[in-house]
Amino acid sequence: MSIIETDALTRRFGDLTAVDCVSLQVSSREIFGLIGPNGAGKSTLIKMLTTLLPPSSGTARIAGFDVVSHPAQVRAHIGYVPQLLSADGALTAYENLLLSARLYLIPRKEREMRINAALKLMDMESAAHRQVQGFSGGMIRRLEIAQSMMHEPVVMFMDEPTVGLDPVARRAVWDHVRQIREELGTTILITTHLMDEADELCDRIGVLHAGRLQEVGTPQELKARIGPDATLDDVFAEITGTEIVSGGSYRDVRQTRASARAHS
Length: 264
Ligand SMILES: Nc1ncnc2c1ncn2[C@@H]1O[C@H](COP(=O)(O)OP(=O)(O)OP(=O)(O)O)[C@@H](O)[C@H]1O
Description:
The protein has 264 residues and is of the alpha/beta class.
């Protein structure tokens, strides 16, 4: 069953079509990665799926609920981990989770049980009563993921969940994302600029470029379409005309090639 389903979903800003006729199905329990260069339309797509921005045309349904006609039901079924830091550094992990439990209207008598379950799932029990400002980046990220799943959503949207983390902390986040899916059966949609993250963590990947969903497939399928030894970096370069340079940022292949020609 599709938990996320869009049909010709489109969003325009004046003359610019930021998301252009995107039709996508994401199944229950899938970890789906959305990749694409800066400005490809990833955030705009997520904003429409989380009811923060109305579509210009087309439809989107989350867990069967239309984002335009049933926004409250959609919100009750989703968790959102934003890119910007959202945990309060002056509070402890437990206090942050208590705030989220109140925000998600979890009944008072259930709160302690849910907080302890979230702390356990994210391996943070020993840090529960420490102030967040002393946490590492990876611990803060795990706490934020815990905060966004207090109400056991059927879908979680994570905007670049490991940005700024070192390789060890990133792997810890990946392990916990997988664990959420295993234990709660959650469907997870992440955006990422990291090809190894998309390759290792995601069951399927969608490549967005200039607002259009250019390709969708498993990492293996996407690589096989390019060639026998292709990497996901090659897939990205082929589809978007941008290549990834060390550090994870992009260089425009066309621009690089044009300047190489100019200097030859
Ligand atoms: N509120 C807005 N008003 C006008 N244009 C917008 C608005 N929001 C986004 N855009 C434009 O829509 C396009 C898609 O932007 P979006 O932020 O969705 O891309 P993105 O793939 O998330 O990029 P990034 O990887 O940098 O986060 C860009 O050209 C952007 O400038």
